[in-house]
Amino acid sequence: MAETLVRVEGLRRHFGARAGFVARLAGTTRPLLRAVDGVSFTIEAGRTLGLVGESGCGKSTVARCVAGLQPLTAGEVHIAGHEIRAIASGAAGPHARCQTQMIFQDPFASLNPRWRVGRTLSDPLSTFDRDAPRAAIAGRVADLLEQVGLSRGDLGKYPHEFSGGQRQRIAIARALAASPAFIIADEPTSALDLSVQAQILNLLQQIQRARQVSFLFISHNLAVIEHMADEVGVMYLGRLVERRSAAALFADPAHPYTRLLIETVPSTRRIGPRRTPPQGEVADPMRPPSGCTFHPRCPIAEARCRSETPVLRPTAGGVVACHLD
Amino acid sequence: MNHPAPGTVVLEAEDLVVERNGPDGALRLLDGVSLTLRACMILGVVGESGAGKSLTGAALIDLLDPPLRLRSGRLRFCGVETMPRRGRDVSMVFQDPLTALYPLFPIGQQLVETIRVHHGTSRAAAEARAHDLLVEVGVSAPRDRLLQYPHELSGGMRQRVVLALALAPDPTVLVADEPTTALDVSVQAQIVALIRRLCDERGMAVMLITHDIGVVAEAADDVAVMYAGRIVETGPVAEVLTAPRHPYTKGLLAATLELGQRRERLAQIDGTAPRPGAWPTGCRFHPRCPDRLAVCAREAPVLTPDGRVSMACWHG
What we know:
Chain A is α/β, with parallel strands linked by helices and 325 residues long.
Protein backbone atom coordinates (compact mmCIF):
# COMPACT_ATOMS: atom_id res chain seq x y z
CA MET A 1 0.00 0.00 0.00
CA ALA A 2 1.31 3.41 -0.96
CA GLU A 3 1.98 6.00 1.72
CA THR A 4 -0.76 8.39 2.72
CA LEU A 5 -0.03 11.87 1.41
CA VAL A 6 -3.16 13.75 2.41
CA ARG A 7 -5.15 13.10 5.56
CA VAL A 8 -8.32 15.07 6.32
CA GLU A 9 -10.11 14.43 9.58
CA GLY A 10 -13.42 15.86 10.75
CA LEU A 11 -13.12 18.89 8.49
CA ARG A 12 -15.75 21.50 9.29
CA ARG A 13 -16.26 24.90 7.76
CA HIS A 14 -19.16 26.97 9.02
CA PHE A 15 -20.08 30.42 7.80
CA GLY A 16 -21.81 33.22 9.66
CA ALA A 17 -21.02 31.65 13.00
CA ARG A 18 -19.93 34.90 14.61
CA ALA A 19 -22.61 37.50 15.05
CA GLY A 20 -21.79 41.05 13.98
CA PHE A 21 -21.48 43.93 16.42
CA VAL A 22 -25.07 45.12 16.07
CA ALA A 23 -26.44 41.62 16.24
CA ARG A 24 -24.48 40.99 19.43
CA LEU A 25 -25.88 44.18 20.98
CA ALA A 26 -29.37 43.18 19.93
CA GLY A 27 -28.77 39.70 21.27
CA THR A 28 -29.69 37.99 18.00
CA THR A 29 -27.56 35.32 16.40
CA ARG A 30 -26.85 35.01 12.72
CA PRO A 31 -27.95 31.79 11.10
CA LEU A 32 -25.23 29.22 10.71
CA LEU A 33 -24.38 27.70 7.36
CA ARG A 34 -22.61 24.39 7.80
CA ALA A 35 -20.95 24.34 4.38
CA VAL A 36 -18.75 21.41 5.35
CA ASP A 37 -19.79 19.43 8.37
CA GLY A 38 -17.37 16.70 9.33
CA VAL A 39 -15.60 15.37 6.25
CA SER A 40 -12.75 12.85 6.52
CA PHE A 41 -10.67 11.16 3.85
CA THR A 42 -7.14 10.20 2.92
CA ILE A 43 -5.36 10.28 -0.42
CA GLU A 44 -2.37 8.05 -1.11
CA ALA A 45 0.62 9.18 -3.11
CA GLY A 46 -0.05 9.04 -6.83
CA ARG A 47 -3.78 8.40 -6.43
CA THR A 48 -6.91 10.43 -7.14
CA LEU A 49 -9.86 11.09 -4.89
CA GLY A 50 -12.87 12.36 -6.80
CA LEU A 51 -15.43 14.50 -4.95
CA VAL A 52 -18.85 14.71 -6.52
CA GLY A 53 -22.11 16.34 -5.53
CA GLU A 54 -24.63 18.96 -6.60
CA SER A 55 -24.14 22.70 -6.24
CA GLY A 56 -24.00 23.83 -2.65
CA CYS A 57 -22.92 20.45 -1.28
CA GLY A 58 -19.62 21.89 -0.04
CA LYS A 59 -17.18 20.23 -2.41
CA SER A 60 -15.45 23.46 -3.42
CA THR A 61 -15.28 24.55 0.23
CA VAL A 62 -13.48 21.28 1.00
CA ALA A 63 -11.04 22.08 -1.80
CA ARG A 64 -10.39 25.58 -0.51
CA CYS A 65 -9.90 24.39 3.07
CA VAL A 66 -7.51 21.64 2.00
CA ALA A 67 -5.60 24.14 -0.13
CA GLY A 68 -5.25 26.42 2.88
CA LEU A 69 -7.23 29.17 1.17
CA GLN A 70 -9.82 29.19 3.91
CA PRO A 71 -9.48 28.62 7.65
CA LEU A 72 -11.06 25.50 9.10
CA THR A 73 -13.80 25.84 11.70
CA ALA A 74 -12.74 22.48 13.12
CA GLY A 75 -10.86 19.38 12.11
CA GLU A 76 -7.42 18.66 10.77
CA VAL A 77 -5.76 18.57 7.38
CA HIS A 78 -2.30 17.02 7.04
CA ILE A 79 -0.38 17.14 3.78
CA ALA A 80 2.91 15.24 3.57
CA GLY A 81 3.14 15.26 7.37
CA HIS A 82 2.47 18.96 7.90
CA GLU A 83 -0.66 20.46 9.39
CA ILE A 84 -2.49 22.87 7.07
CA ARG A 85 -2.38 25.82 9.51
CA ALA A 86 1.42 25.53 9.69
CA ILE A 87 1.63 25.20 5.89
CA ALA A 88 -0.62 28.19 5.24
CA SER A 89 1.12 30.43 7.76
CA GLY A 90 4.53 29.52 6.36
CA ALA A 91 5.67 27.99 9.66
CA ALA A 92 6.25 24.63 7.97
CA GLY A 93 8.65 26.23 5.48
CA PRO A 94 8.42 27.08 1.78
CA HIS A 95 8.85 23.49 0.66
CA ALA A 96 5.71 22.38 2.52
CA ARG A 97 3.80 25.16 0.84
CA CYS A 98 4.70 24.28 -2.71
CA GLN A 99 3.65 20.65 -2.17
CA THR A 100 0.02 21.64 -2.85
CA GLN A 101 -1.14 23.45 -5.96
CA MET A 102 -4.57 24.22 -7.32
CA ILE A 103 -6.25 24.31 -10.71
CA PHE A 104 -9.44 26.34 -10.86
CA GLN A 105 -12.59 26.01 -12.93
CA ASP A 106 -12.47 29.16 -14.99
CA PRO A 107 -9.22 29.74 -16.87
CA PHE A 108 -10.53 33.15 -17.89
CA ALA A 109 -10.53 34.26 -14.26
CA SER A 110 -7.56 32.34 -12.85
CA LEU A 111 -4.82 33.88 -14.99
CA ASN A 112 -3.62 37.44 -14.55
CA PRO A 113 -4.68 39.17 -17.80
CA ARG A 114 -1.81 41.66 -17.61
CA TRP A 115 0.94 39.07 -17.24
CA ARG A 116 2.60 37.36 -20.15
CA VAL A 117 2.55 33.57 -19.92
CA GLY A 118 6.28 33.54 -19.20
CA ARG A 119 5.80 35.64 -16.08
CA THR A 120 2.79 33.61 -14.91
CA LEU A 121 4.94 30.49 -15.03
CA SER A 122 8.24 31.89 -13.76
CA ASP A 123 6.65 33.58 -10.77
CA PRO A 124 6.01 30.36 -8.81
CA LEU A 125 9.41 29.01 -9.84
CA SER A 126 11.32 32.00 -8.49
CA THR A 127 9.09 32.19 -5.41
CA PHE A 128 9.76 28.62 -4.39
CA ASP A 129 13.40 28.55 -5.48
CA ARG A 130 14.84 31.98 -4.74
CA ASP A 131 18.41 31.05 -5.56
CA ALA A 132 17.75 29.70 -9.04
CA PRO A 133 19.53 31.64 -11.79
CA ARG A 134 17.34 33.42 -14.34
CA ALA A 135 18.54 31.31 -17.24
CA ALA A 136 17.64 28.09 -15.41
CA ILE A 137 14.15 29.43 -14.68
CA ALA A 138 13.64 30.43 -18.30
CA GLY A 139 14.60 26.93 -19.40
CA ARG A 140 12.22 25.32 -16.92
CA VAL A 141 9.36 27.60 -17.97
CA ALA A 142 9.82 26.54 -21.58
CA ASP A 143 9.91 22.87 -20.54
CA LEU A 144 6.68 23.31 -18.60
CA LEU A 145 4.89 24.82 -21.57
CA GLU A 146 5.95 21.94 -23.77
CA GLN A 147 4.81 19.42 -21.17
CA VAL A 148 1.28 20.81 -21.35
CA GLY A 149 1.25 20.85 -25.14
CA LEU A 150 2.05 24.49 -25.85
CA SER A 151 5.21 25.85 -27.45
CA ARG A 152 8.11 28.09 -26.42
CA GLY A 153 6.79 30.69 -28.80
CA ASP A 154 3.78 31.20 -26.52
CA LEU A 155 5.88 32.58 -23.65
CA GLY A 156 5.51 36.19 -24.72
CA LYS A 157 1.74 36.06 -25.23
CA TYR A 158 -1.03 37.29 -22.96
CA PRO A 159 -3.91 35.07 -21.73
CA HIS A 160 -6.45 36.69 -24.06
CA GLU A 161 -4.52 35.36 -27.05
CA PHE A 162 -5.41 31.78 -26.09
CA SER A 163 -8.57 29.69 -26.25
CA GLY A 164 -10.20 28.35 -23.08
CA GLY A 165 -8.51 24.97 -23.40
CA GLN A 166 -5.10 26.52 -23.96
CA ARG A 167 -5.60 28.78 -20.95
CA GLN A 168 -6.42 25.76 -18.82
CA ARG A 169 -3.16 24.22 -20.07
CA ILE A 170 -1.32 27.33 -18.86
CA ALA A 171 -3.06 27.04 -15.48
CA ILE A 172 -1.93 23.41 -15.30
CA ALA A 173 1.64 24.38 -16.20
CA ARG A 174 1.56 26.99 -13.44
CA ALA A 175 0.41 24.35 -10.96
CA LEU A 176 3.25 22.06 -12.10
CA ALA A 177 5.86 24.81 -11.80
CA ALA A 178 6.24 24.24 -8.07
CA SER A 179 6.73 20.45 -8.61
CA PRO A 180 3.83 19.67 -6.29
CA ALA A 181 3.08 16.26 -4.81
CA PHE A 182 -0.60 17.12 -4.56
CA ILE A 183 -2.86 18.96 -6.99
CA ILE A 184 -6.38 20.11 -6.20
CA ALA A 185 -8.44 20.44 -9.35
CA ASP A 186 -11.81 22.15 -8.80
CA GLU A 187 -14.04 21.50 -11.82
CA PRO A 188 -11.09 21.88 -14.20
CA THR A 189 -13.06 21.02 -17.34
CA SER A 190 -16.51 22.42 -16.56
CA ALA A 191 -15.90 25.67 -18.43
CA LEU A 192 -14.48 23.89 -21.47
CA ASP A 193 -16.00 22.54 -24.64
CA LEU A 194 -16.45 18.81 -24.96
CA SER A 195 -13.66 18.18 -27.46
CA VAL A 196 -11.27 20.17 -25.27
CA GLN A 197 -12.41 18.48 -22.05
CA ALA A 198 -11.03 15.18 -23.34
CA GLN A 199 -7.67 16.82 -24.11
CA ILE A 200 -7.37 18.27 -20.60
CA LEU A 201 -8.39 15.04 -18.85
CA ASN A 202 -5.85 13.10 -20.92
CA LEU A 203 -3.19 15.66 -20.03
CA LEU A 204 -3.95 15.42 -16.30
CA GLN A 205 -3.73 11.63 -16.39
CA GLN A 206 -0.49 11.76 -18.31
CA ILE A 207 0.94 14.16 -15.72
CA GLN A 208 -0.15 11.89 -12.91
CA ARG A 209 1.57 8.88 -14.47
CA ALA A 210 4.77 10.81 -15.18
CA ARG A 211 5.06 12.60 -11.84
CA GLN A 212 3.13 10.39 -9.41
CA VAL A 213 1.14 13.36 -8.09
CA SER A 214 -1.98 12.87 -6.00
CA PHE A 215 -5.18 14.58 -7.08
CA LEU A 216 -8.20 15.85 -5.26
CA PHE A 217 -10.48 16.04 -8.28
CA ILE A 218 -13.77 17.86 -7.91
CA SER A 219 -16.54 17.67 -10.46
CA HIS A 220 -20.29 17.63 -10.68
CA ASN A 221 -19.96 15.29 -13.67
CA LEU A 222 -20.07 11.66 -12.59
CA ALA A 223 -18.70 10.36 -15.87
CA VAL A 224 -15.64 12.58 -15.49
CA ILE A 225 -15.20 11.39 -11.90
CA GLU A 226 -15.48 7.76 -12.94
CA HIS A 227 -12.84 8.33 -15.59
CA MET A 228 -10.38 10.13 -13.31
CA ALA A 229 -10.77 8.83 -9.77
CA ASP A 230 -9.42 5.81 -7.90
CA GLU A 231 -11.65 6.57 -4.94
CA VAL A 232 -14.86 8.61 -4.94
CA GLY A 233 -16.51 10.70 -2.24
CA VAL A 234 -20.14 11.67 -2.74
CA MET A 235 -21.17 14.82 -0.84
CA TYR A 236 -24.64 15.94 0.12
CA LEU A 237 -25.31 19.11 2.15
CA GLY A 238 -21.84 19.33 3.66
CA ARG A 239 -21.32 15.67 4.45
CA LEU A 240 -19.85 12.64 2.74
CA VAL A 241 -22.66 10.15 2.27
CA GLU A 242 -20.52 7.54 0.53
CA ARG A 243 -16.77 7.16 0.07
CA ARG A 244 -15.59 4.07 -1.77
CA SER A 245 -13.26 2.82 -4.43
CA ALA A 246 -14.46 3.99 -7.83
CA ALA A 247 -14.87 0.42 -9.06
CA ALA A 248 -17.09 -0.58 -6.11
CA LEU A 249 -19.11 2.62 -6.10
CA PHE A 250 -19.99 2.59 -9.79
CA ALA A 251 -20.60 -1.15 -9.91
CA ASP A 252 -22.90 -1.15 -6.89
CA PRO A 253 -23.72 2.29 -5.44
CA ALA A 254 -24.62 1.91 -1.77
CA HIS A 255 -26.28 5.24 -0.97
CA PRO A 256 -29.67 6.16 -2.49
CA TYR A 257 -28.26 9.58 -3.38
CA THR A 258 -25.38 8.03 -5.31
CA ARG A 259 -27.90 5.87 -7.15
CA LEU A 260 -29.96 8.96 -7.98
CA LEU A 261 -26.89 10.75 -9.34
CA ILE A 262 -25.88 7.77 -11.46
CA GLU A 263 -29.39 7.36 -12.84
CA THR A 264 -29.63 10.98 -13.93
CA VAL A 265 -26.44 11.11 -16.00
CA PRO A 266 -27.55 11.63 -19.61
CA SER A 267 -26.13 9.11 -22.04
CA THR A 268 -25.68 9.30 -25.78
CA ARG A 269 -26.34 5.58 -25.92
CA ARG A 270 -29.78 5.66 -24.37
CA ILE A 271 -32.04 7.24 -26.95
CA GLY A 272 -35.47 8.33 -25.87
CA PRO A 273 -36.94 9.60 -22.62
CA ARG A 274 -36.16 8.01 -19.27
CA ARG A 275 -39.13 6.43 -17.54
CA THR A 276 -39.36 8.57 -14.41
CA PRO A 277 -37.01 11.44 -13.64
CA PRO A 278 -36.06 11.73 -9.95
CA GLN A 279 -38.19 14.07 -7.87
CA GLY A 280 -37.21 16.96 -5.61
CA GLU A 281 -34.18 19.17 -5.25
CA VAL A 282 -31.38 19.75 -2.77
CA ALA A 283 -32.72 21.33 0.42
CA ASP A 284 -31.72 24.83 1.49
CA PRO A 285 -28.38 24.36 3.31
CA MET A 286 -29.43 27.05 5.81
CA ARG A 287 -32.33 24.84 6.85
CA PRO A 288 -31.16 21.25 6.36
CA PRO A 289 -33.75 18.53 6.98
CA SER A 290 -33.59 16.61 10.25
CA GLY A 291 -31.99 13.19 10.56
CA CYS A 292 -30.54 12.05 7.26
CA THR A 293 -30.57 15.27 5.24
CA PHE A 294 -31.38 13.29 2.10
CA HIS A 295 -34.59 11.78 3.50
CA PRO A 296 -37.11 14.12 1.79
CA ARG A 297 -35.83 12.97 -1.63
CA CYS A 298 -35.07 9.39 -0.70
CA PRO A 299 -37.28 6.76 -2.33
CA ILE A 300 -36.69 4.26 0.51
CA ALA A 301 -36.69 6.53 3.58
CA GLU A 302 -38.13 5.14 6.81
CA ALA A 303 -39.23 6.76 10.06
CA ARG A 304 -35.77 6.67 11.66
CA CYS A 305 -34.24 8.47 8.64
CA ARG A 306 -36.24 11.53 9.67
CA SER A 307 -34.98 11.55 13.23
CA GLU A 308 -31.55 9.90 13.34
CA THR A 309 -28.48 11.13 11.47
CA PRO A 310 -26.73 8.13 9.94
CA VAL A 311 -22.99 7.78 10.53
CA LEU A 312 -20.49 6.37 8.04
CA ARG A 313 -20.28 2.60 8.35
CA PRO A 314 -18.05 0.17 6.48
CA THR A 315 -19.29 -1.38 3.26
CA ALA A 316 -17.56 -3.12 0.34
CA GLY A 317 -14.63 -0.94 -0.74
CA GLY A 318 -15.33 1.97 1.61
CA VAL A 319 -17.95 3.59 3.82
CA VAL A 320 -21.56 4.71 3.46
CA ALA A 321 -23.86 6.82 5.66
CA CYS A 322 -27.29 5.22 5.34
CA HIS A 323 -29.50 3.46 7.86
CA LEU A 324 -30.74 1.01 5.28
CA ASP A 325 -28.87 -1.71 3.47
CA MET B 1 -54.48 27.67 -29.45
CA ASN B 2 -54.85 26.03 -32.75
CA HIS B 3 -51.89 23.86 -33.32
CA PRO B 4 -51.08 22.00 -36.50
CA ALA B 5 -51.07 18.22 -36.64
CA PRO B 6 -48.03 16.41 -35.26
CA GLY B 7 -45.13 16.37 -37.71
CA THR B 8 -46.39 19.35 -39.74
CA VAL B 9 -43.68 21.81 -40.67
CA VAL B 10 -44.33 25.01 -38.71
CA LEU B 11 -41.10 26.97 -39.06
CA GLU B 12 -38.55 26.79 -41.82
CA ALA B 13 -35.34 28.75 -41.83
CA GLU B 14 -33.37 28.88 -45.03
CA ASP B 15 -29.79 30.02 -45.51
CA LEU B 16 -29.61 32.26 -42.46
CA VAL B 17 -26.54 34.48 -42.45
CA VAL B 18 -25.84 36.56 -39.35
CA GLU B 19 -23.12 39.17 -39.18
CA ARG B 20 -21.73 41.49 -36.56
CA ASN B 21 -20.84 44.96 -37.71
CA GLY B 22 -17.62 46.26 -36.31
CA PRO B 23 -14.88 48.78 -36.98
CA ASP B 24 -13.16 46.28 -39.28
CA GLY B 25 -16.27 45.59 -41.31
CA ALA B 26 -18.83 42.83 -40.99
CA LEU B 27 -17.80 39.66 -39.20
CA ARG B 28 -19.76 36.62 -40.29
CA LEU B 29 -20.98 34.54 -37.33
CA LEU B 30 -23.59 32.32 -38.91
CA ASP B 31 -23.04 31.18 -42.44
CA GLY B 32 -26.00 29.66 -44.25
CA VAL B 33 -27.97 27.72 -41.66
CA SER B 34 -31.19 26.01 -42.72
CA LEU B 35 -33.46 24.06 -40.45
CA THR B 36 -37.02 22.88 -40.12
CA LEU B 37 -39.11 22.73 -36.95
CA ARG B 38 -42.14 20.44 -36.85
CA ALA B 39 -45.15 20.35 -34.54
CA CYS B 40 -44.82 17.93 -31.62
CA MET B 41 -41.15 17.41 -32.34
CA ILE B 42 -37.92 18.51 -30.68
CA LEU B 43 -34.92 19.48 -32.75
CA GLY B 44 -31.76 19.31 -30.68
CA VAL B 45 -29.02 21.69 -31.78
CA VAL B 46 -25.57 20.76 -30.51
CA GLY B 47 -22.13 22.21 -30.98
CA GLU B 48 -19.35 23.89 -29.08
CA SER B 49 -19.26 27.50 -27.93
CA GLY B 50 -19.07 29.87 -30.88
CA ALA B 51 -20.61 27.38 -33.30
CA GLY B 52 -23.67 29.59 -33.72
CA LYS B 53 -26.32 27.62 -31.83
CA SER B 54 -27.66 30.53 -29.79
CA LEU B 55 -27.46 32.92 -32.73
CA THR B 56 -29.62 30.56 -34.76
CA GLY B 57 -32.18 30.56 -31.96
CA ALA B 58 -32.02 34.34 -31.61
CA ALA B 59 -32.51 34.75 -35.37
CA LEU B 60 -35.70 32.65 -35.26
CA ILE B 61 -37.23 34.84 -32.58
CA ASP B 62 -35.99 38.14 -34.00
CA LEU B 63 -33.73 38.89 -31.05
CA LEU B 64 -30.73 40.07 -33.03
CA ASP B 65 -29.88 43.58 -31.94
CA PRO B 66 -27.23 45.77 -33.53
CA PRO B 67 -24.34 45.25 -34.03
CA LEU B 68 -25.77 41.82 -34.86
CA ARG B 69 -27.96 41.59 -37.91
CA LEU B 70 -29.59 39.02 -40.12
CA ARG B 71 -27.73 39.64 -43.35
CA SER B 72 -29.77 37.27 -45.48
CA GLY B 73 -31.97 34.22 -45.27
CA ARG B 74 -35.64 33.37 -45.33
CA LEU B 75 -38.05 32.40 -42.60
CA ARG B 76 -41.33 30.65 -43.39
CA PHE B 77 -43.84 30.37 -40.56
CA CYS B 78 -46.79 28.00 -41.13
CA GLY B 79 -46.22 28.20 -44.88
CA VAL B 80 -46.08 32.00 -45.07
CA GLU B 81 -42.84 33.84 -45.69
CA THR B 82 -42.78 36.15 -42.69
CA MET B 83 -40.88 36.92 -39.54
CA PRO B 84 -42.79 35.04 -36.83
CA ARG B 85 -44.23 37.15 -34.03
CA ARG B 86 -42.17 37.06 -30.89
CA GLY B 87 -44.04 35.41 -28.03
CA ARG B 88 -47.16 34.15 -29.74
CA ASP B 89 -45.50 32.40 -32.66
CA VAL B 90 -42.06 31.76 -31.22
CA SER B 91 -41.25 31.95 -27.53
CA MET B 92 -37.94 31.46 -25.76
CA VAL B 93 -36.42 29.97 -22.60
CA PHE B 94 -32.95 31.05 -21.52
CA GLN B 95 -30.09 29.35 -19.76
CA ASP B 96 -30.02 31.13 -16.43
CA PRO B 97 -33.45 31.33 -14.79
CA LEU B 98 -32.23 33.85 -12.22
CA THR B 99 -31.37 36.47 -14.81
CA ALA B 100 -34.41 35.66 -16.93
CA LEU B 101 -36.75 36.63 -14.10
CA TYR B 102 -37.14 40.15 -12.79
CA PRO B 103 -35.90 40.13 -9.20
CA LEU B 104 -38.12 42.86 -7.77
CA PHE B 105 -41.59 41.54 -8.66
CA PRO B 106 -43.30 38.40 -7.41
CA ILE B 107 -43.48 35.75 -10.11
CA GLY B 108 -47.28 35.92 -10.16
CA GLN B 109 -47.14 39.57 -11.21
CA GLN B 110 -44.65 38.74 -13.98
CA LEU B 111 -46.89 35.96 -15.26
CA VAL B 112 -50.06 38.05 -15.11
CA GLU B 113 -48.41 40.91 -16.98
CA THR B 114 -47.17 38.58 -19.73
CA ILE B 115 -50.58 36.96 -20.09
CA ARG B 116 -52.37 40.29 -20.27
CA VAL B 117 -49.96 41.71 -22.83
CA HIS B 118 -50.42 38.73 -25.11
CA HIS B 119 -54.08 37.92 -24.59
CA GLY B 120 -55.57 41.18 -23.31
CA THR B 121 -57.58 39.37 -20.66
CA SER B 122 -58.86 40.77 -17.38
CA ARG B 123 -56.64 40.67 -14.31
CA ALA B 124 -58.78 37.98 -12.66
CA ALA B 125 -58.71 35.77 -15.75
CA ALA B 126 -54.97 36.29 -16.09
CA GLU B 127 -54.45 35.31 -12.46
CA ALA B 128 -56.41 32.13 -12.98
CA ARG B 129 -54.38 31.42 -16.11
CA ALA B 130 -51.10 32.06 -14.25
CA HIS B 131 -52.14 29.51 -11.65
CA ASP B 132 -52.96 26.97 -14.36
CA LEU B 133 -49.63 27.55 -16.07
CA LEU B 134 -47.73 26.90 -12.84
CA VAL B 135 -49.70 23.68 -12.40
CA GLU B 136 -48.88 22.71 -15.97
CA VAL B 137 -45.12 23.11 -15.44
CA GLY B 138 -45.22 21.18 -12.18
CA VAL B 139 -44.71 23.93 -9.62
CA SER B 140 -45.82 22.71 -6.21
CA ALA B 141 -48.21 24.87 -4.12
CA PRO B 142 -48.84 27.24 -7.06
CA ARG B 143 -51.13 29.58 -5.12
CA ASP B 144 -48.36 30.42 -2.63
CA ARG B 145 -45.68 30.55 -5.31
CA LEU B 146 -47.47 33.31 -7.20
CA LEU B 147 -46.67 35.66 -4.34
CA GLN B 148 -43.01 34.64 -4.05
CA TYR B 149 -40.01 36.44 -5.48
CA PRO B 150 -37.52 34.67 -7.76
CA HIS B 151 -34.84 34.49 -5.04
CA GLU B 152 -37.21 32.50 -2.83
CA LEU B 153 -37.36 29.66 -5.35
CA SER B 154 -34.87 26.87 -6.01
CA GLY B 155 -33.05 26.68 -9.35
CA GLY B 156 -35.36 24.01 -10.72
CA MET B 157 -38.50 25.85 -9.62
CA ARG B 158 -37.20 29.05 -11.23
CA GLN B 159 -36.65 27.29 -14.54
CA ARG B 160 -40.20 25.93 -14.35
CA VAL B 161 -41.47 29.47 -13.82
CA VAL B 162 -39.42 30.68 -16.80
CA LEU B 163 -41.04 27.91 -18.85
CA ALA B 164 -44.48 29.02 -17.64
CA LEU B 165 -43.67 32.58 -18.77
CA ALA B 166 -42.59 31.31 -22.18
CA LEU B 167 -45.80 29.30 -22.48
CA ALA B 168 -48.02 32.20 -21.44
CA PRO B 169 -48.56 33.45 -25.04
CA ASP B 170 -49.38 29.85 -26.14
CA PRO B 171 -46.51 29.74 -28.63
CA THR B 172 -46.41 27.49 -31.67
CA VAL B 173 -42.64 27.22 -31.45
CA LEU B 174 -40.44 27.18 -28.35
CA VAL B 175 -36.72 27.94 -28.55
CA ALA B 176 -34.97 26.62 -25.43
CA ASP B 177 -31.38 27.88 -25.23
CA GLU B 178 -29.35 25.65 -22.85
CA PRO B 179 -32.34 25.39 -20.49
CA THR B 180 -30.65 22.84 -18.22
CA THR B 181 -27.03 23.97 -18.24
CA ALA B 182 -27.25 26.05 -15.06
CA LEU B 183 -29.03 23.26 -13.19
CA ASP B 184 -27.84 20.24 -11.21
CA VAL B 185 -27.97 16.89 -12.96
CA SER B 186 -30.95 15.55 -11.04
CA VAL B 187 -32.95 18.72 -11.73
CA GLN B 188 -31.72 18.77 -15.32
CA ALA B 189 -33.41 15.41 -15.87
CA GLN B 190 -36.68 16.80 -14.51
CA ILE B 191 -36.61 19.85 -16.78
CA VAL B 192 -35.73 17.78 -19.86
CA ALA B 193 -38.67 15.48 -19.13
CA LEU B 194 -40.92 18.51 -18.61
CA ILE B 195 -39.97 20.06 -21.96
CA ARG B 196 -40.66 16.74 -23.68
CA ARG B 197 -44.08 16.51 -22.02
CA LEU B 198 -45.01 20.12 -22.85
CA CYS B 199 -43.97 19.57 -26.46
CA ASP B 200 -46.17 16.50 -26.77
CA GLU B 201 -49.18 17.86 -24.87
CA ARG B 202 -49.23 21.27 -26.53
CA GLY B 203 -48.18 20.11 -29.96
CA MET B 204 -45.39 22.70 -29.96
CA ALA B 205 -42.33 22.59 -32.14
CA VAL B 206 -39.24 22.86 -29.94
CA MET B 207 -35.70 23.86 -30.75
CA LEU B 208 -33.50 22.61 -27.90
CA ILE B 209 -30.06 24.19 -27.91
CA THR B 210 -27.50 22.37 -25.80
CA HIS B 211 -23.85 21.44 -25.65
CA ASP B 212 -24.78 18.13 -24.01
CA ILE B 213 -25.37 15.36 -26.53
CA GLY B 214 -26.79 13.21 -23.74
CA VAL B 215 -29.67 15.68 -23.35
CA VAL B 216 -30.36 15.45 -27.09
CA ALA B 217 -30.37 11.65 -26.92
CA GLU B 218 -32.86 11.80 -24.09
CA ALA B 219 -35.30 14.39 -25.36
CA ALA B 220 -34.97 15.19 -29.05
CA ASP B 221 -36.42 13.62 -32.19
CA ASP B 222 -33.99 15.23 -34.61
CA VAL B 223 -30.53 16.68 -34.15
CA ALA B 224 -28.46 19.29 -35.96
CA VAL B 225 -24.72 19.34 -35.27
CA MET B 226 -23.16 22.78 -35.73
CA TYR B 227 -19.54 23.69 -36.27
CA ALA B 228 -18.06 27.13 -36.99
CA GLY B 229 -21.30 28.79 -38.09
CA ARG B 230 -22.69 25.92 -40.14
CA ILE B 231 -24.68 22.74 -39.74
CA VAL B 232 -22.40 19.79 -40.57
CA GLU B 233 -24.81 16.93 -39.98
CA THR B 234 -28.52 16.69 -39.29
CA GLY B 235 -31.13 13.96 -39.13
CA PRO B 236 -33.13 11.76 -36.75
CA VAL B 237 -31.44 11.36 -33.34
CA ALA B 238 -31.63 7.59 -33.51
CA GLU B 239 -29.65 7.59 -36.76
CA VAL B 240 -27.15 10.38 -36.17
CA LEU B 241 -26.15 9.32 -32.66
CA THR B 242 -25.96 5.60 -33.32
CA ALA B 243 -24.24 5.86 -36.70
CA PRO B 244 -22.56 9.27 -36.94
CA ARG B 245 -21.14 10.00 -40.38
CA HIS B 246 -19.47 13.39 -40.17
CA PRO B 247 -15.96 13.20 -38.64
CA TYR B 248 -16.85 16.01 -36.22
CA THR B 249 -19.97 14.22 -34.98
CA LYS B 250 -17.93 11.03 -34.65
CA GLY B 251 -15.24 12.89 -32.72
CA LEU B 252 -17.75 14.54 -30.39
CA LEU B 253 -19.43 11.25 -29.59
CA ALA B 254 -16.08 9.52 -29.03
CA ALA B 255 -14.95 12.32 -26.71
CA THR B 256 -18.16 12.15 -24.67
CA LEU B 257 -17.60 10.39 -21.37
CA GLU B 258 -20.11 7.69 -20.57
CA LEU B 259 -20.63 5.96 -17.27
CA GLY B 260 -19.28 2.43 -17.21
CA GLN B 261 -16.90 3.07 -20.09
CA ARG B 262 -13.70 3.67 -18.16
CA ARG B 263 -10.88 3.81 -20.70
CA GLU B 264 -7.15 4.28 -20.43
CA ARG B 265 -7.22 7.32 -22.67
CA LEU B 266 -10.09 9.36 -23.99
CA ALA B 267 -10.52 9.89 -27.69
CA GLN B 268 -9.92 13.58 -28.26
CA ILE B 269 -10.34 16.01 -31.12
CA ASP B 270 -7.02 17.81 -31.40
CA GLY B 271 -6.88 21.58 -31.61
CA THR B 272 -9.70 23.99 -30.83
CA ALA B 273 -12.76 25.23 -32.67
CA PRO B 274 -11.85 28.26 -34.82
CA ARG B 275 -13.17 31.66 -33.86
CA PRO B 276 -15.42 33.61 -36.22
CA GLY B 277 -13.22 35.58 -38.57
CA ALA B 278 -10.56 32.88 -38.44
CA TRP B 279 -12.56 30.15 -40.13
CA PRO B 280 -10.36 27.91 -42.26
CA THR B 281 -10.91 27.70 -46.00
CA GLY B 282 -12.86 24.82 -47.47
CA CYS B 283 -14.37 22.54 -44.85
CA ARG B 284 -13.98 24.43 -41.58
CA PHE B 285 -13.27 21.26 -39.69
CA HIS B 286 -10.43 20.13 -41.95
CA PRO B 287 -7.47 21.26 -39.78
CA ARG B 288 -8.77 19.05 -36.94
CA CYS B 289 -10.12 16.25 -39.10
CA PRO B 290 -8.37 12.87 -38.95
CA ASP B 291 -9.76 11.88 -42.39
CA ARG B 292 -9.05 15.06 -44.36
CA LEU B 293 -8.43 14.94 -48.10
CA ALA B 294 -6.70 17.46 -50.34
CA VAL B 295 -10.06 18.84 -51.51
CA CYS B 296 -11.19 19.59 -47.93
CA ALA B 297 -8.88 22.59 -47.61
CA ARG B 298 -9.94 24.01 -50.99
CA GLU B 299 -13.67 23.68 -51.26
CA ALA B 300 -16.45 23.76 -48.71
CA PRO B 301 -18.71 20.69 -48.83
CA VAL B 302 -22.45 21.42 -48.95
CA LEU B 303 -25.07 19.82 -46.76
CA THR B 304 -26.29 16.92 -48.91
CA PRO B 305 -29.15 14.60 -48.00
CA ASP B 306 -28.58 10.86 -48.02
CA GLY B 307 -31.65 9.03 -46.80
CA ARG B 308 -32.97 10.83 -43.74
CA VAL B 309 -29.60 12.27 -42.75
CA SER B 310 -27.90 15.27 -44.35
CA MET B 311 -24.19 15.82 -44.05
CA ALA B 312 -21.57 18.25 -45.29
CA CYS B 313 -18.41 16.23 -45.86
CA TRP B 314 -16.37 15.31 -48.89
CA HIS B 315 -16.30 11.70 -47.74
CA GLY B 316 -20.06 11.58 -48.38
